[in-house]
Amino acid sequence: MRNVLLVAELALREAVRRRLVLALLGLTVIFLGFYLYGVHLLQVRLAERAADIGLDRPLRSATFSYAFATLFGLYLVNFLGGLMAVLSSVGAVSGEVESGTIQSIAYKPVSRSQIVAGKWLGFAVVTVSYVVVLATGLLVGVRLITGFLPPDPVPAVALMALSVLVLLTLTILGGTFFTTLANGIGVFLLYGLGFAGGILSSVGAATDTPLLVRLGSVASYVMPSDSLWKGASYFLQPRTLIDLQRLREDADGGGNPFVGTTPPDPTFLVWTGAYVLVTLALALLIFRRRDL
């Protein structure tokens, strides 16, 4: 365990030292400031509209506008977290194999399994912290500007962090047998597959096409990230907004492909947890047997 923590510490230092990660962090700060400024403009505009009709505060319907603004902001946070997970760790294993650096430590007391586990742990700390801090910053900013706070932000952020861990673990697994470039492309394709699966499910429900619904369901199990986001979005919406969306779903047969109106299925969460553990175990096994 000591060696795993040592490798994790080295991975943390590597993540901080890499300019790509620092650049992403800088752009993220710009994004957060820009987005919260947009929320401020929205709040000012709604207050002006309320004043025009003789009210001293925005209408209650303004809550829906704030809820949608928060949802969209956290959707972007979820995407940035996935981007951070892949870009920060895509060369964590494969890059060192390609450069030959791995040979200087793989034959010392630190075993290959400990190297992979330590790198996963280090980058997990980086990416999960990134998502939690960024999501918290956005939620606090929206709260201070508008007074709006989603009903259950804690489970929502936890599901977003789990989504990031899925992408990170897949990236670590790919790095044990793919080149760095192929690994990055492959993980992003899987990420896109999950997103496409969510759209297929919505289209299949709207058009009464069971095959599309089944394909979407299969895609969500192959890549759980999109379904995890939809589960997170359920906790971010006021109950009234969820009821309105359910009425719309009952009317046209389809749902919103970007948000969910039901809590995450516990069975699916168990599957996702097992998915991460099995993927990490495969990474440990494959790298242990790989010819360096």
Short description:
By secondary structure, the chain is mostly helical.
The biggest beta sheet is recorded as: none
> H/E series, N to C?
HHHHHHHHHHH
Helical residue percent band:
over 70%
Task: Please state the overall shape, judged from the principal axes of the Cα atoms.
Answer: globular
| Tally of individual domains | 1
3D architecture notes:
The protein has helices at 2-17, 19-52, 62-89, 94-99, 112-146, 153-175, 180-206, 210-222, 225-236, 239-252, 266-289. The protein is an all-alpha fold. Helix 3 runs parallel beside helix 6, helix 5 runs antiparallel to helix 6 and helix 6 (153-175) crosses helix 7. The longest helix has 35 residues, at 112-146. The two termini are 24 Å apart.
Show the helix and strand layout.
Elements: H1 2-17, H2 19-52, H3 62-89, H4 94-99, H5 112-146, H6 153-175, H7 180-206, H8 210-222, H9 225-236, H10 239-252, H11 266-289
Tags for this entry?
11 helices, 79% helix, mainly alpha
